[in-house]
Design brief:
Layout (H helix, E strand, L loop, with lengths): L23 E3 L5 E5 L9 E2 L6 E2 L4 E4 L8 E2 L4 E10 L5 E9 L19 H10 L12 H4 L10 E6 L8 H8 L1 H12 L6 E7 L3 H11 L5 E6 L8 H9 L14 E5 H13 L5 E7 L7 E6 L4 H7 L9 E4 L6 E2 L13 E5 L3 H4 L10 H5 L6 H9 L3 H6 L10 H5 L6 H22 L1
Parallel strand pairs: 1-14, 9-10, 9-12, 10-11, 13-17
Antiparallel strand pairs: 2-8, 3-5, 4-7, 5-6, 7-8, 13-14, 15-16, 15-17
Helix pairs in contact: 4-5, 4-7, 11-14
Length: about 450
Amino acid sequence: MGLLTFKGGIHPNDGKALAKDQAIRPAEAGDKLYFSISQHIGAPAKPVVEKGDHVKRGQVIAEAGGFVSAPVFSSVSGTVAGMEKMRMPAGNLMDCIVVENDHANEEISYEPAKDWRALSKEEVLGRIKDAGVVGMGGAGFPTHVKLSPKDPSAIDYIQINGAECEPYLTSDYRMMLEHPEKIVEGLQIMLSLFPKAKGQICVEANKMDCVEKLQKAASGDSSIEVRVMKTKYPQGAERMLIFANTGRAINSKMLPADAGCIVDNIATVAAIHDAVVLGKPLMERVVTVTGDAANQPGNFMTPTGMLFSELIEQAGGLKDDFEKLIAGGPMMGFSVFSTNIPVTKTSGGILAMAHDDVAASEPSACINCGRCVEACPEHLIPTRLAQFADNSKMDEFRANDGMECCECGSCSYVCPAKRQLAQSIKSMRKMCLAAAAAARAKK
């Protein structure tokens, strides 16, 4: 029997050797931290502090702005300096609460659970909600909402995404290697919310050291299975992971819960553990600083609100002639033009490249080779969709299932003509979503 996988995908150079052997170490926060009030999908958080207020580490500085929202916490002690708009990785400006760090590291008192198994489902969800836990793999969906489906009895699997298929990033790898017990207990907490669900920790075959650690941590618990998947990008994409491990397929109009699954990534499960067992809020996360232009690649437990520039400095800085900086990984990350960007709950990595191969490539005409079709995990025809996008043919784009694109970038990677297929498709998808939202608003 072969390894678990899906049809399509690619095998890019993973670049993980640069940082995979670097143990997680704490990053020291700078003099000013910038806390975005929107580090999640849904309504922005509402500030509950004012200029001049003294705050402690772990204190709420912005409360949830609705059910689909999450509170924000200060990761340092200090004085609130006001609000300031800061650039986010996607290029948008966002209101941030500015805290001047007093470096005293004064911290609030937490309320650990004496025995989390004695907590009711409502109490478990309440702890997750109050701790501001969101999906830390990039989407930022509030976790208490994800763990509250309409019919909990219809959930068959809780799947933990340990694929980390995005090249270069190693933050989840180090968490699995260094804290397997925390991940397993976090999954057990999630399973306690669903009466018939089984747990699946899904890891790629290039991380067998993590598989062994997790299997040992989960030994004796028949409700949890560590599953080994083929090493392939985008194996960790939600739809691909669900199909590889259950054979169930979902589309863009469905949620994983519609296929009886709930999917969360490694960092999120660790945050669930800290919230429920320790009573600690989400105010720090592991960030990988890597790339061939990084002087000392590594994995850092980073306070949210810390600037990219300060984190990069603690990683030894960058080579003088580097050409490209990416927030995230090379396939789905955002190219940034500044390091004056704050770390948020969803910041997984900072990638510095000595050469910008994309900018140096000159696109040419499509040669109809079909490689993009073979690589597409959603079985689309990317070159056709990109043509519709480039010619603003929204109806044709939709009719050819353009909204099913998961934006993995596999098509652009394999294109011998160096055409930016994924970029065109992503732009058109955003336009379609905006048009649909405008149509709903008129009704």
